TrEMBL record:
The organism of origin for this protein: Kineosporia succinea
Protein's name according to its UniProt entry: Alkanesulfonate monooxygenase SsuD/methylene tetrahydromethanopterin reductase-like flavin-dependent oxidoreductase (Luciferase family)
Entry keywords, A to Z: Oxidoreductase
PANTHER family named in the record: 5,10-METHYLENETETRAHYDROMETHANOPTERIN REDUCTASE, PTHR43244
UniProt-listed Gene3D superfamilies: Luciferase-like domain (3.20.20.30)
Length: 300
């Protein structure tokens, strides 16, 4: 089991079961409550990660905004690099872009299902990272093909590139090609430790060119407080295709939720992204609870 311990950063997910017009109040609540990060999802066919991140960045001044995860099959890598670079230069130091395989059934619906998602993600993440670091890139891969492509306005420094996934091979790849890794869901100690170690296996011995910081590992965790919290968490987990089990979701008061966040930190996770239930009755109030009551307990 992983034994290195960190005090995790605390984030909130703006899940696209919430209509886009709610983003402004959510982003402002997250900023005012003192949370470290706000994450927006790019799930098909709900809400755009780039559009929501841009709006959230414009409506806030301090909080970091992540995009988890932009599906590589849907997006030409040069266009993704242009969009990330533009946002990073307009809001320096606050954008956390993330890419992944995409849900394969969704990719099939739009005619973009890759025969080898691993090959695509490797080629895509490598090229994207090079473009964001200001390189002129020529590559003739199976999926990614660029001929002397370079950004006119590369960000300096480049934002950390998050790469996410679920399977063992993909998790190892995220450590290899990304500056940071996104693990989809929490779980029991053994499961989280195993996945963190797979990421670390991918890091190898040498730092990637241009790397500026230790590799970050984020994880999602469904959370609720107040009356009926446990029942709401248990009902939410199957919505995302999972069965409730030990460590899946957390319900209770501030001390209970903070203890679970610290647990994940002891297992090597550096950011915990708490996801409210779809039926959360007071989303802004829940965010304020996390920032004002849970976050101060994390250092204890």
């Amino acid at each position: 089991m992983t034994t290195s311990s960190v005090v995790p950063r605390l984030g909130i997910a703006f899940v696209p079961v919430v209509p886009p017009e709610r983003l402004r109040s959510v982003a402002r609540a997250a900023e005012e409550s003192g949370l470290d990060e706000l994450w927006v999802w790019e799930d098909c066919f709900k809400e755009s990660g780039i559009a929501t991140a841009a709006a959230a960045l414009a409506w806030t001044e301090r909080i970091h905004v992540g995009i988890g995860l932009m599906p590589a099959p849907l997006r030409n890598v040069a266009v993704t690099a242009m969009e990330i670079a533009t946002l990073e230069r307009m809001f320096p130091g606050r954008l956390m872009p993330g890419v992944g395989h995409g849900v394969q059934d969704w990719m099939g619906q739009v005619g973009q299902r890759a025969a080898s998602p691993m090959t695509l993600l490797r080629e895509y993440s490598t090229a994207l990272r090079r473009l964001l670091h200001g390189e002129k890139v020529t590559v003739d891969g199976t999926y990614v093909k660029l001929n002397e492509v370079a950004l006119d306005w590369p960000p300096s420094p480049a934002p950390l590139l998050y790469v996410g996934g679920e399977g063992p091979k993909t998790l190892t790849l995220t450590g290899e090609v990304g500056d940071a890794s996104m693990l989809s869901w929490a779980g029991d100690d053994e499961s989280v430790s195993r996945r963190v170690q797979l990421v670390r296996d991918g890091l190898g011995e040498g730092a990637k060119p241009g790397a500026r910081s230790p590799h970050r590992i984020t994880i999602g965790q469904i959370a609720a407080t107040g009356e009926g919290a446990q029942a709401r968490v248990d009902a939410e987990i199957p919505v995302w295709g999972r069965k409730p089990g030990p460590g899946d979701g957390v319900a209770g008061d501030a001390a209970t939720i903070a203890a679970d966040v610290r647990r994940l930190g002891r297992l090597g996770v550096t950011t915990v992204i708490l996801q409210p239930t779809s039926d959360e009755p007071d989303l802004e109030g829940f965010i304020q609870f996390l920032g004002q009551e849970v976050r101060p307990l994390l250092a204890e």
